[in-house]
Amino acid sequence: MFFSYTIWVILKQKRIDEIKTDFINNMTHELKTPISTISLSTDVLTRPDIIENPQRLNTYARIIKEENNRLKTQVEKVLQMASLENSSIELEKKEVDLHQLCLQTIRSFDLILKDKNGVLTTQFDAKPSIIIADAFHIGNVLFNLLDNAIKYSAENPKIELITYSDRKGIYLEIKDQGIGISDKDKKQIFDKFYRVTKGDLHDVKGYGLGLNYSKTMVHLHKGWIKLKNNTPHGSIFTIFLPFKP
Ligand code: ADP
What number is the average pLDDT over the span 154-176? Predict the structure, then answer.
């Protein structure tokens, strides 16, 4: 009995070490790649042959913008992780118009949706759309769910963002038609560092933190987050946020 418990502890420690190493390797790669691309592109922008060619100038300006967005996302992920490690997160709650926050967040995905030939449609039925919340953290939650909906859809992602309300608060649904999540994975999907390891799209980079962070933040607002299957395929994440947490 003692022997098998010791083996279990060793294996668990080994898994934690693997996750940490993976995390550091991924993060280093994700930060270094956009920095070197931006640096190369800015060098090119100073070349006389490029300055005189508006089309090529535009191409490099676009690369810099995209890589800068990528860098911003990675830095936000590090900040999100730091929040999770801080057991006494101080939320800065004030009146937030959830529809405005959705529109603002959606804008970050304009370029990637264009590149992937995707569409994001909205249907805002919540009335009123004002809640008492921390706009920064709820904005991050929205960002994570939309980012996943796009990341885990193969070609031409079709995403829907829907809101509705009742007496108690606002419901927000993010629907995708992507690879979906199996019943087995559904049980663990909100666990810290959990990533589905098999499947078509598993060269997609990530840390397994976004959903854990999202769940923590929604709970801190006295709300909840749920996952169900979309038909015929894909996922639907529903968030409930009370008007007054
Ligand atoms: P990350 O995307 O960085 O790996 P998350 O915590 O956001 O971390 O998600 C955990 C895992 O859940 C992902 O690795 C992915 O396997 C799965 N997942 C999350 N959202 C979706 C989605 N919309 N469709 C399919 N799989 C998803």
Answer: 96
